[in-house]
Specification:
- With 441 residues, the chain is an alpha/beta fold.
- 28% of the residues lie in helices and 22% in strands.
- The protein is globular, with a radius of gyration of 21 Å.
């Protein structure tokens, strides 16, 4: 359906939801304004490198914020549990922008963070060709509403706040824009707390995972680095599960606020690093967060992140051998598995920055997961933490057309609580762009 509004739509966030929303709007004849609080991927790589080598944090350009969103520094997994015709659209677009053609047919396609960065540059050029000029370093800092409708957006760049008249704001802010959640809540944008999960990253030797998963077939040159996906029910009903498994990858700092620590995992296209890593998570219920208001989960996450930072007062994350964790002993050294996190780790006790129900769940599940996947609870496997950002603890309410009760506001993707990966977020962005424009409604 052609986009008929006389005002330019505003797309907020250049992650997969925002990028594919802007692309689809432009293909329908709109000239959307695309803003991103972080920097283009070329500058973003430099800022992430400065953090990993020197411990220098850029709060607006890091593993969480910038072109490509948090998924740009991940494994680049393109799997999706949805069955939707636009999945092919997303994959074909990525291939046209330089992704390997085998993602069109692979059972578990992935790009890897190194290739994904190159794809993002080509996708940006595609947007520019269609008349969309992304504005980096621009942050949405307010909305103007009239009679329950969006009439303008406030955008800050280099300390100056500008007013953009618009009747459609596509809000693809990602799951870590805590400041944006806060003012949206104060403005009365309908939202609610939702379940999420927290835990640690677990690391094993990739060679040992390969041996267990492939048996006598390993090593065969045609076999890729092995993966796993595990789940264990727990007596309290929360469950423990693995998420975002990164074969041959590394643990990275997913941090944007000073005096906090949080980790995630990533891998390159070749997945040829010595370690496998995955999130090992425990379910969190809204009631666990100590308050009924929608943003309580944000404070719950931050409490753990600040506790981890306080252990050393630096961007040095706690890391513990599984054997020591199960015996409730701080680690003093590492064994055959060496940590991959940069800039630094220290051998210690990850439970000092986790709630008791999380450590209890992990200690219950690890030996049982070791029976499902031999060696998963190997004493020298490593736990690095905390990992608090596997999903948003907030959901911005919307209808079937992806529109908030505030007319003209479209919450999208992981930050709105409606997606769980690159493909599902991109699909959400495409679907929102296909909804009728204000003059069509």
């Amino acid at each position: 359906m052609p986009y008929l509004s006389s005002l330019q739509p505003l797309v907020v966030g250049a992650g997969p939801a925002g990028l594919f929303c802007a692309l689809t709007l432009a293909q329908q004849g709109a000239k959307p304004i695309l803003i991103e609080r972080g920097q283009p991927v070329e500058q973003r790589i430099l800022h992430v490198t400065a953090f990993e080598t020197q411990g220098l944090l850029n709060p607006e350009s890091n593993v969480l914020f910038g072109e490509g969103g948090a998924g740009a520094f991940s494994d680049g997994k393109l799997t999706c549990s949805l069955n939707h015709p636009h999945i092919v659209t997303v994959l074909q677009t990525l291939v046209a922008c330089g992704a390997p053609k085998d993602i069109l047919s692979a059972q578990k396609p992935h790009i890897g963070t190194d290739m994904l960065r190159k794809v993002l540059v080509q996708l940006r050029q595609k947007l520019i060709t269609l008349g969309v000029a992304p504005r980096f370093g621009h942050c949405l800092t307010g909305l103007r509403l009239r009679e329950g409708r969006v009439v303008a957006a406030l955008v800050t760049h280099e300390g100056r706040e500008d007013v953009l008249e618009t009747d459609a704001v596509y809000l693809a802010i990602g799951h870590s824009a805590r400041d944006t959640y806060t003012w949206l809540h104060s403005l009365g944008i309908p939202m609610q707390a939702k379940p999420f999960a927290i835990g640690v990253r677990i690391e094993h030797l990739q060679s040992e995972i390969n041996k267990v998963q492939y048996g006598k077939s390993w090593p065969h040159p045609a076999l890729p680095p092995a993966e796993y996906k595990l789940n264990m029910p727990t007596p309290d009903g929360r469950g423990v599960y693995t998420f975002c498994m990164c074969p041959g990858g590394s643990v990275v700092g997913a941090i944007h606020e000073p005096d906090t620590l949080n980790v995630n995992g990533m891998s390159l296209l070749a997945r040829d690093g010595p370690n496998a890593n995955a999130a090992l998570l425990v379910g969190v219920r809204p009631a666990d967060c100590g308050h009924s208001q929608p943003l309580a989960g944000l404070g719950f996450q931050r409490c753990m992140e600040e506790a981890a930072f306080a252990l050393t007062g630096s961007f040095t994350v706690p890391c513990q051998r599984v054997g020591d964790f199960l015996q409730n002993n701080p680690s003093k050294s590492f064994g055959e598995v060496l940590p991959t996190f940069r800039p630094r780790v220290f051998a210690g006790d990850v439970s000092l920055c986790l709630p008791d129900f999380v450590t209890t769940g992990l200690r219950y599940a690890l030996p049982r997961l070791g029976r499902l996947l031999r060696g998963f609870d190997h004493p020298d496997a490593l736990l690095t933490g905390p990992e608090t950002r596997s999903s948003s603890p907030v959901r911005l309410l919307r209808n079937e057309q992806r529109e908030s009760p505030i007319s003209g506001l479209f919450p999208l993707g992981e930050g709105a609580g409606y997606a769980g990966g690159i493909i599902s977020a991109a699909l959400d962005g495409i679907a929102a762009a296909h909804c009728p424009s204000p003059e069509n409604r």
